């Protein structure tokens, strides 16, 4: 897998997003439940209802647009196809010999909305869900997922290969 394919694969995984990530919850007024009020189809026309917020089951551009606003990506790829690590959950990627392995280190400052740190357990959960969904997942076989991934190993709470 070359670096370009890795970027594509990681972009797909990041868009898949079990990354319902926000900065640490600074507000003491955290509320469970309630109603989300939004304008359907912001930036897209014609307006349409959204079907859900689960990026593993995205069924429309409207769902995808809302999910992009809700979930922080594993890697943030800018318009020049370069990774912006300040906006990424990953803080660095170490490429192994012959570009056959990629060790991804997560930044420790990202947290879920309830304050729980984002760890490799979240990444592993997403990866394993993708494998279970198989071709039912809309992004299946794009960006090298799963064809170019031969193994997934958690190395610790903030690193995976």
From TrEMBL:
Signal sequence annotation: 1-24
Top-level division of the source organism's lineage: Bacteria
Q: What is the lineage of its organism?
A: Bacteria, Pseudomonadati, Pseudomonadota, Acidithiobacillia, Acidithiobacillales
- Do you know which Gene3D superfamilies this protein is assigned to? Periplasmic binding protein-like II
Name this polypeptide is given: Peptide ABC transporter substrate-binding protein
UniProt KW keywords: Signal
């Amino acid at each position: 897998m070359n670096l370009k394919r890795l970027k594509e694969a990681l972009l797909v995984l990041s868009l898949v997003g079990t990354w319902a990530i926000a900065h640490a919850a600074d507000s003491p007024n955290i509320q469970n439940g309630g109603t989300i009020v939004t304008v359907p189809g912001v930036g897209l026309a014609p307006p349409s209802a959204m079907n859900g917020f689960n990026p593993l089951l995205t069924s429309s551009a409207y769902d995808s647009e809302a999910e992009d606003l809700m979930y922080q990506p594993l890697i943030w790829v800018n318009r020049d196809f370069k990774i912006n690590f300040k906006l990424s959950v990953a803080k660095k990627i170490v490429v192994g010999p012959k570009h056959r392995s990629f060790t991804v280190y997560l930044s420790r400052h990202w947290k879920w909305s309830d304050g729980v740190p984002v760890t490799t357990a979240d990444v592993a959960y997403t990866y394993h869900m993708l494998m279970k969904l198989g071709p039912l997942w809309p992004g299946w076989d794009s960006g090298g997922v799963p064809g170019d991934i031969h193994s997934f190993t958690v190395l610790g709470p903030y690193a995976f290969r």
